[in-house]
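Entry for the shared binder. Reason: the reviewer on the internal report wants the predicted structure included alongside the sequence.
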Amino acid sequence: MSILQDLHRQRETITHARDTLHGVDDNILKSRKILSVMARRIMQNKAIMFGIIAMLVGSIGLVVYFKFIK
């Protein structure tokens, strides 16, 4: 009888551990999605920043060209 009780407790422990692991797996999946969205936003922000820098450098170049060369 004690062996059956031990086996039952072990089964409950294993079941609880499995449920906990499924919960952790779901949380990891959500975290991975959030991180991929963040990475995409970082790349978009960098592209916008470099575009603005290029426009400013081009504008400065045009001002210098028309101010001093012409």
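Summary line for the report: The chain has a mean pLDDT of 95.
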